[in-house]
Structures are given as structure tokens and as C-alpha cells.
Write a structure and sequence with these properties.
The complex is a heterodimer of chains A (385) and B (567). In chain A, 50% of the residues are buried. Chain A contains eleven helices and 14 strands. The longest helix of chain A has 29 residues, at 2-30. In chain A, a hairpin with a 4-residue loop joins β11 and β12 (356-357). Chain A has two domains: 39-154 and 287-368, Rossmann fold (3-Layer(aba) Sandwich); 157-281, 3-Layer(aba) Sandwich (Rossmann fold). The model of chain A is unreliable at 1-31 (pLDDT under 50). Chain A has helices at residues 2-30, 53-68, 88-100, 113-123, 156-170, 184-199, 218-226, 239-251, 290-302, 310-329, 333-341; strands spanning 39-45, 77-83, 104-108, 131-134, 149-151, 175-181, 203-210, 232-236, 257-260, 278-281, 350-351, 356-357, 371-376, 379-382. Chain B has two domains: 2-218, Four Helix Bundle (Hemerythrin (Met), subunit A); 312-529, Methyl-accepting chemotaxis protein (Helix Hairpins). Chain B is 94% helix and 0% strand. Chain B is flat and about 185 Å long. The model of chain B has no long low-confidence stretch (mean pLDDT 73). Classes of the chains: A alpha/beta (385), B mainly alpha (567). The interface between A and B is medium-sized, with 32 and 32 residues.
């Protein structure tokens, strides 16, 4: 008796609540339901430094765009930002924080190779490994660092071989002088360029290391000039060294064509005349593609006319890749990893702002050409290849 | 207790001792073999890791020395070989450093040293290259100052790789001594287990020996006792089961002997006693035979007195007849009264039963109402859920309205109208939240009332139950009264019946008394005959007394013979 009474009393509220929740679900499709538990994605990089600014801006833009379109599986994405100062030991620490938070399903980061490699040891360890997608870590050492480590940018060895191809075939260079930063990045880029360039019949006329302890570039450059000059100077190092080298070139009035790897990106805004310097990049804001045009115009509109760099574009693509993976397989860390590993092999490649993205067995992006940019009016513009 | 009992045989004890020894030896062997294998594995591992680290370390040291040597040589001769050796040495050193860094066996402190060596090498390389460039440009002074800077780094770097080698040998020593310590510990363990198992085996052996020796001594003593005529039981406690069997056999033998002796002693005592009694009785008989004849004469005169008494009794019997008839009348009256009470009680019993039934119905009614009140209380639960839902919806609507307001603000002029609507929506959401809150308050009040009502109902139910119990008690008491009255009725009827029977019995007794009087007269004559027979018996009894004295003497002799045994 009592049971049937209660049942008939309960039915109307349940029916109402169901229909109201359906209406609410409809509303949240238009703008993601903010009261839903957000899905957490780690974002790790040296955000206290200007070079990582674009990475953070673009990642946040991607998240807000995804949330505006209803989030992932009806839940909003939310970034958990961790500053690793670009250092290996701090990267390990912040990686541990992200790893230990069971609500973090994946990480976009880290920005530079040293931090990414150190953090990879944490992410690939233990019972509950965590995916990291680096937007910009390009060291060849990162290839195969672990099944949970991915990157959406080409490795330095791709930069090296494609720069050699560019110098030899497009610039017609026969004689190249190399100046390399005496660290893993510089030595790696120099070695792949050197091998590739010699293979193409070019000649390396000099091959000199530098670092912060170098008193001056002048003896190296003067010696190059005194020994018959060079068609092209390859600069394999970071932006600070590049600026110093360009200053020295101007000082001694020696004007070879200068090409450099993506480490030198940013030289266009340095206080030095860098006009005409070629730089190989994983991405350039004006590279062709409808997807990229939308991204750059939106980025420019929101962030007061600024332009995204390759780290920003990589982070933007990484966030969308993760959203796609979570949409497909849910919040399971292992599931996300397996989905990412299958992109380009099991599933269609992802067409992002940096280009088409698919992963090989090492977690490296497959068949990705670098973009060659030229400094023009303190801007980097892509050069048609 | 049972497992202990199972151990209580010589066989089990010996097997146990042997087993303890064997187990001890096996443990010793296992520990020994385990220790040897552990030591072997540790040695192999440590050696492998030491070898791996020191091999890379040696290659690194060689490459670094080669690079520094080539760098210095180029500064003096500027030869192409020196230049090439410098760069190939550098590349080799970088490779070895990276390999050393990735060796898992490398200690953390050493890893830091290797990193520092890498930094110093990179700096030295840059500075030497710089010096070489100056040298190539003919600037000897600048080349030398560059080289000085390079040498500072190189010296520090070579000192550090030296440290690395030292640390490797220190580690080798530490490993060796820790291995030695581990081996010593294992050895001690082996000795301890060996000693312990020998001790256990000896202890079990001694215990077994003792458990054989002590009972055997006891059994031998008991056998000796038996020989000496001491037949007390053998103490059997605390013996292995084989000896217990032997002891039990001895005990059975002793027991049989003991019983035999005891029986003989008892028998002889009884015989002596009987002989004594016999002679005493025969003497007494002889003495009393005379008394009997005297008594018999008295009996004869007593019988005559009895005849006179019985005649008086017959008269008394006539009086008893009248009294018994009265009792019969009274009993019949009691039975009539009982029937009245019975009728009355049955009438009241029906009334009380009816009242009780009414109370039970009332109780059920109250209980049903209480249940309905409870249901009412439970029903307010879904209403709360509904209110929660409304609140949730209004807070979400509120947030949506806020977002809409922000978006409208972003849209600028075109969004003004929309922002008004958003504000209206937000206020609507607020109002519905407040309404929900008020509904929730009302429900709370209703719920309080309902629960108060529920309490009152519960109290009423308890009272009804109390009254019901009382009326049931009353009905029960009446029922008991009816039963009791019935019993009284039956009883008084029986009394009336008995009275009638008594009447007959009294007549019978009078009759019997008369025949008793006749019998008494005949008794008097026969007792005179008995007195004559008793006098004859006196003579034969004296003869029997003489024979009893002979028997008594024989019994005394037998008793003295068995007294040597101690039962």
C-alpha cells in the first residue's frame, strides 16, 4: 500500500527534473556548463620568462575556444600552470606535482629540451604515467624518451638537414662556416647540418664553438674572412649569441648570408640589425593554411596585436590534440596515450595550425617540414620554398 | 594436550630428536648455500656496475687528456693533425660523458661531477678554439691569454675526472668491505643455527633417556615391593607409553593379588565374626527360651482383655455412623454453591472479553494512523529533493545570466538591450531561489507538526496496549476462578461420596471387631502351646554354642595367616 502511494507521488518530480536537466544540457552546449567539474590539463614551461609567453597565451586561447564550443565531453577544460624556469631539476619537481594529481589527465610541455627530457623520466615512470606533449622541445635525444613523451615540433636533426638543403639548393652555397653553441642543442644542429651539407657536395670551411665564456666572436669571423670567406654562416645556438655574432659581423663589416636554427628565433626583435637572416622554424605565424589564419587573427585580436611564435602554435595544437583524445577515449591517462600514439597511424592525422600532425613510434611528429623565415623589418616572414 | 600425548612414546621422542637435528642441518645448508649465492650475485652485480662505470670513466679521461694535449700541441705547431685530434677528442669526450650520465649505476654525487666536467670541457673547448683562432691570425699574445683561461678550466676538469676515478676505487673498497661484512654475518648465522640444532638434539636425547630411566627404576622398585608382600599400586604418571604398558601389566598383577588377599582377609574376619555372633546368639537363645514361655503366658491373659475392649468398640462404631451422615449433607450444599459461582463467573467473563476485543481494535486503529503519519513524513523527502533541484537550476541560471551579461558587455552598444534581459533573467533566478527557500521553510514546519502528531499517536498506542493488558488479566483471573470453583464442586461431590462409603466402612469395622474378638480368644489357647515348644528349643541351642566356639578358633588362625600381606 505505502509503496504504491509513494511511487505515484514521486513520479511527477522525477519527470520534471529530467526534462529540466535536458533543457540545461541544451544550454550548456552553447556555452560550457561552468558548474561541471573541469578537466585538468597541465601546462609546464618557463612562464616567468618572455620566451614562454606565447606558449601560455596560445594554450589559454585554445582552452577558451574549446570551452566556448561546449568543452570536452560536456566538461570545461582547465589549465594547471606550472613554471619550470626552463631548468631540468625544477622541471622534475613540477612534473612530480602534475603526475601526483590524479585529476590531471595530460600535460602540455615542457618548452625546452632539457626540461622536457628531465621531466620525461617522471611522466614515464610508475603505475600511472602521464602524457607530455612538448610544443617546442627539439633535441634529438628526446626521440624515444618514453612512450608517454610526444612533441608536435620537428627535431633538431630535421632542422639541420633541411637547413643544409636550403643553403645548398636554394641559396646555392658551396662554402659554409659553422658557429655552434657548445651545448647539446648547438652540437646536435651543427652535426646534422654538417653531415647533410657535405653529403650534398658542400664544403665546411670552419666549425667553431662558442658559449658565454667566449671573449669575442671577432677572431672566428676574421679568420673565416681571411681564409677566403664563406657563402653562408650557419649559426647553431640561442638568440643571445646570435645577436652578439651579428653585432660583431657588422663591426668588422663582414656580410655573409646568415642562417640559423629555431634557437635564434627572436633575433628579429633584438637590438641588432638582423635584416636578411634566415631562420628555420617549426612554425611561422604567416605560414599558409586557413586554420592558421583564423588562429593568428584571433590571437592578435585578443592579445593586443601580438603574434604567436612556434611555441605558442605548438601549444595551441597540443591542447586541441588532447581535447580530441579526451573526447574520443575519456579521462584515462593510458587511453589518452594510446589514442595519441595512434594519430596518423590508426586515426587520421590532425590538421593543426602548425600543419599536419601524426606521430611515429618515438613520439616524434612525422613528415614535418620546417618553415624558413627571413627577418624583414624586424619581423620574421616565411619564405616560399 | 593431544599432540603432547602423541609425543609420549620412546619412538616418537627419538624420531623427534633426529628430525630436529636433520632440520637444523638442512637450515644450515640452505643458509650456507643462500649466503654463497647472494655473495656471488652481489659480487657479480657490483663488479659489472663498477666495470661499466670505470670503463666509461677511463675512456672519458683518455679522451679529455687527448683533447687537452692536442689543444696545447696546436698552440705550438699549428698542425692539421693536432687540430683534428682536438676536435675528435672533444667529440669523443662529449659522447662518453653522455653515456656515463645515462648509466644507472652512476652514483648521484658522481653524476654531478660528470655534469661539472661536461661544463668545464665545453668552456675549455671554446677557449682553446678561441686561442687557436687568435694563433691562426698571428696574435700570439691574445692566443696565450686565451689559452691561460682554457688551461684553468682544463686543470679543474682533469682534477675532477681524477676525483671520479678515486670515487670509483673508494666505492670498490666500500663494496668489498660491505660484502665481507655480509659474508661474516651469514657465517655467524650458520654457526648459530648449527649450535642451536645440536643443542636441541642433545636436549631431546637427554630428555628421552631420563624418560626411560626414571620409570624403569620406579617399575623395578615396585616389582621388589611385590616380592616383599607390599602390594600397593604402582605410580604410572609421566612414563613413555611403552613403559606405561609394562607398568600397567605389573599394576594389574598387583591389583589381582591385592583383591585376592583382601577377599581372604575379609572372608576370615567375617567368618570369625559370624562364629562369635553365633555363640553369643545361641547363649542368648538359651537364656531367652525361658523368658518366651513366661511372655506367652502373659499373651494369653492379654487376649482375654482384648476381647472385652473390642466389645466396647462396637458401641463407638454406632456413634461414628451418625456423624458421617452429617458430613454428606454439608458437602452437597457446597457443591450447589459452587455451581452458582460458576454461572456468575461465566457471565462476567463474556463481558470482559468483549471489552478486551474493543481495546485491541482501538490499538490497531491507532497503529494504522501512526503508520500513515510516518508515510506522510517520508513523503516530504522527495519534496526536499525537488526544492534542491529548483535551487540548483536557479543558481545555474544565475551563472548563465552573469555570463550573458559579460558577453553583452563585450558586444558593446548592440548588447545593451540584451544585458537588460540578462539582468531580468538573473533577478528571476534569484526570486525563484528565494521562493524555493520559503517552500522549504513551510515543509519544515509541516514536518515538525507531523512528527509531533506521530509522537502523540505512539503514546496513545502504548496506553491502549496497557488497558488491553489489564482487561486480559481480569479475564484470565475469572477463568481461574471458574476452574477453581469447578475443582471445589468436584471435591465436595467426592467428599459426599466418601461419606456414604464411610458409612458402609464403619459397619464393616464393627463387623471386623467382632470377629477379632473371636480370634483373640483362640490366640490365648495357642500361646500356651508355644511356651511348651520354647522350653524344648533351649536344650538344642546349648549344643549349637559349643560348635560355634570351634569355628571361631579356626577363623582366628586364618586371620593371622593373611595379616602378612599389606593391601
Amino acid at each position: 500500500m505505502a509503496e504504491s502511494h509513494r511511487g505515484s507521488h514521486l513520479r511527477p518530480p522525477r519527470a520534471i527534473s529530467r526534462s529540466i536537466l535536458l533543457v540545461l544540457a541544451g544550454l550548456t552546449l552553447a556555452a560550457c556548463n561552468p558548474s561541471e567539474e573541469p578537466i585538468l590539463i597541465g601546462l609546464a614551461g618557463p612562464f616567468s620568462q618572455p620566451r614562454a609567453q606565447s606558449m601560455q597565451f596560445a594554450a589559454q586561447l585554445a582552452v577558451s575556444e574549446i570551452n566556448q564550443q561546449g568543452g570536452v565531453r560536456g566538461r570545461p577544460l582547465q589549465l594547471v600552470v606550472q613554471d619550470d624556469s626552463g631548468l631540468a631539476d625544477i622541471a622534475v619537481r613540477v612534473a612530480r606535482v602534475l603526475y601526483d594529481d590524479p585529476n590531471v589527465v595530460a600535460v602540455v610541455g615542457h618548452m625546452n629540451s632539457g626540461a622536457t627530457l628531465a621531466a620525461a623520466r617522471v611522466y614515464n615512470s610508475g603505475d600511472n604515467p602521464l602524457v607530455e606533449i612538448s610544443p617546442s622541445a627539439s633535441s634529438p635525444d628526446l626521440s624515444g624518451a618514453g612512450p608517454y613523451t610526444f612533441r608536435v615540433c620537428p627535431s633538431d636533426s630535421i632542422h639541420g638537414t633541411q637547413l643544409a638543403e636550403w643553403a645548398r639548393d636554394r641559396l646555392g652555397a658551396n662554402r659554409v662556416a659553422i658557429l655552434y653553441e657548445n651545448d647539446a642543442y648547438g652540437r646536435g644542429l651543427r652535426t646534422t647540418f654538417r653531415n647533410s651539407f657535405i653529403e650534398r657536395g658542400g664544403q665546411i670551411v670552419s666549425d667553431d664553438p662558442f658559449s658565454a665564456v667566449l671573449p669575442s666572436f671577432e677572431p672566428y669571423l676574421t679568420r673565416i674572412r681571411s681564409r677566403g670567406g664563406a657563402d653562408v654562416v650557419l649559426f647553431a645556438g640561442a638568440r643571445a649569441g646570435a645577436a652578439e655574432m651579428l653585432r660583431t659581423l657588422n663591426m668588422i663589416r663582414f656580410q655573409p648570408t646568415v642562417i640559423g636554427g629555431d634557437g635564434a628565433a627572436g633575433i628579429e626583435t633584438a637590438e641588432v640589425d638582423a635584416e636578411g637572416v634566415y631562420i628555420s622554424l617549426a612554425y611561422l605565424h604567416d605560414q599558409p593554411g586557413a586554420r592558421n589564419e583564423t588562429f593568428t587573427s584571433e590571437y592578435r585580436r585578443i592579445y593586443g596585436g601580438q603574434l604567436p611564435d612556434h611555441r605558442g602554435a605548438g601549444a595551441y595544437d597540443a591542447v586541441f590534440l588532447l581535447a580530441r583524445a579526451i573526447e574520443a577515449v575519456g579521462l584515462n591517462r593510458v587511453g589518452i596515450r594510446d589514442y595519441l600514439a595512434g594519430i596518423g597511424q590508426v586515426t587520421e592525422p590532425y590538421h593543426g595550425v602548425t600543419g599536419s600532425i601524426g606521430f611515429d613510434a618515438n613520439g616524434d611528429v612525422v613528415d614535418r617540414d620546417v618553415v624558413i623565415g627571413i627577418v624583414s623589418n624586424n619581423r620574421l616572414e616565411s619564405v616560399a620554398r | 594436550m593431544k599432540p603432547l600425548a602423541a609425543l609420549n612414546t620412546l619412538r616418537a621422542r627419538i624420531i623427534l630428536g633426529e628430525a630436529a637435528l636433520v632440520v637444523g642441518l638442512v637450515v644450515v645448508a640452505v643458509i650456507g648455500i643462500g649466503a654463497l649465492q647472494t655473495v656471488k650475485n652481489t659480487v657479480t652485480q657490483e663488479l659489472a656496475s663498477l666495470t661499466a662505470v670505470s670503463a666509461e670513466n677511463n675512456r672519458l679521461v683518455t679522451a679529455l687528456f687527448e683533447q687537452v694535449r692536442a689543444a696545447e700541441q696546436y698552440l705550438t705547431d699549428g698542425s692539421v693533425e693536432a687540430r683534428n685530434a682536438f676536435s675528435s677528442g672533444g667529440e669523443a669526450a662529449h659522447t662518453y660523458q653522455r653515456r656515463l650520465q645515462t648509466l644507472p649505476e652512476l652514483a648521484e654525487a658522481d653524476r654531478l661531477v660528470v655534469t661539472r666536467v661536461g661544463v668545464l670541457q665545453a668552456e675549455a673547448e671554446v677557449l682553446y678554439s678561441f686561442a687557436h683562432a687568435q694563433q691562426d691570425l698571428g696574435r700570439r699574445g691574445d692566443a696565450q691569454s686565451g689559452a691561460r683561461l682554457a688551461r684553468e678550466r682544463a686543470t679543474e676538469m682533469l682534477r675532477l675526472v681524477g676525483l671520479l676515478s678515486t670515487s670509483q676505487s673508494v666505492r670498490a673498497e666500500t663494496t668489498a668491505s660491505s660484502l665481507e661484512q655480509a659474508a661474516t654475518d651469514r657465517e655467524m648465522l650458520v654457526w648459530t643455527v648449527l649450535a642451536a640444532s645440536v643443542l636441541i638434539a642433545v636436549a631431546i636425547g637427554v630428555a628421552t633417556l631420563q624418560s626411560v630411566e626414571r620409570p624403569l627404576t620406579r617399575l623395578a622398585a615396585a616389582a621388589r615391593r611385590f616380592g616383599d608382600g607390599d602390594l600397593r599400586p604402582v605410580a604410572l604418571g609421566g612414563m613413555p607409553s611403552e613403559l606405561t604398558t609394562l607398568g600397567e601389566a605389573m599394576d594389574r598383577l598387583g591389583g589381582t593379588l591385592r583383591t585376592l588377599v583382601t577377599e581372604v582377609v575379609e572372608e576370615s574376619e567375617r567368618m570369625a565374626g559370624a562364629a562369635e555372633d553365633l555363640s553369643a546368639i545361641s547363649e542368648q537363645l538359651a537364656a531367652t527360651a525361658g523368658d518366651v514361655s513366661t511372655a506367652m503366658e502373659e499373651v494369653s491373659s492379654g487376649a482375654q482383655r482384648q476381647v472385652a475392649g473390642l466389645n466396647e468398640s462396637c458401641a463407638a462404631g454406632q456413634n461414628l455412623h451418625g456423624a458421617t451422615e452429617d458430613a454428606g449433607h454439608v458437602s452437597s450444599r457446597v457443591a450447589e454453591l459452587g455451581a452458582d459461582i460458576h454461572r456468575l463467573a461465566e457471565t462476567y467473563g463474556t463481558d470482559i472479553d468483549a471489552a478486551g476485543n474493543t481495546l485491541v481494535e482501538l490499538g490497531n486503529l491507532v497503529q494504522q494512523t501512526a503508520r500513515q503519519v510516518e508515510e506522510l513524513d517520508e513523503l516530504s523527502e522527495p519534496i526536499y529533493e525537488f526544492i534542491d533541484l529548483i535551487k540548483q537550476i536557479s543558481s545555474q541560471t544565475n551563472l548563465l545570466a552573469l555570463n550573458a551579461a559579460i558577453e553583452a558587455a563585450r558586444a558593446g552598444e548592440r548588447g545593451v538591450g540584451f544585458s537588460v534581459v540578462a539582468e531580468e533573467v538573473r533577478q528571476l533566478a534569484d526570486t525563484s531561489a528565494q521562493a524555493a527557500e520559503r517552500v522549504s521553510g513551510t515543509i519544515k514546519t509541516i514536518r515538525d507538526h507531523v512528527s509531533a502528531m506521530g509522537e502523540t499517536m505512539a503514546a496513545g498506542r502504548a496506553q491502549a496496549r496497557g488497558v488491553g493488558a489489564v482487561s486480559q488479566g481480569a479475564a484470565e483471573a475469572l477463568r481461574q476462578i471458574v476452574t477453581t470453583v469447578k475443582e471445589i464442586e468436584t471435591e465436595s461431590r467426592r467428599v459426599a461420596g466418601h461419606a456414604a462409603q464411610n458409612l458402609t466402612a464403619v459397619d464393616n469395622i464393627t463387623q471386623a471387631l467382632r470377629s477379632a474378638s473371636d480370634a483373640a480368644q483362640s490366640h490365648a489357647s495357642s500361646s500356651e502351646e508355644v511356651a511348651a515348644a520354647a522350653q524344648e528349643q533351649g536344650a538344642s541351642t546349648e549344643e549349637m554354642a559349643a560348635q560355634a566356639a570351634v569355628l571361631n578358633r579356626a577363623a582366628e588362625h586364618l586371620r593371622s595367616l593373611v595379616k602378612a600381606f599389606r593391601a
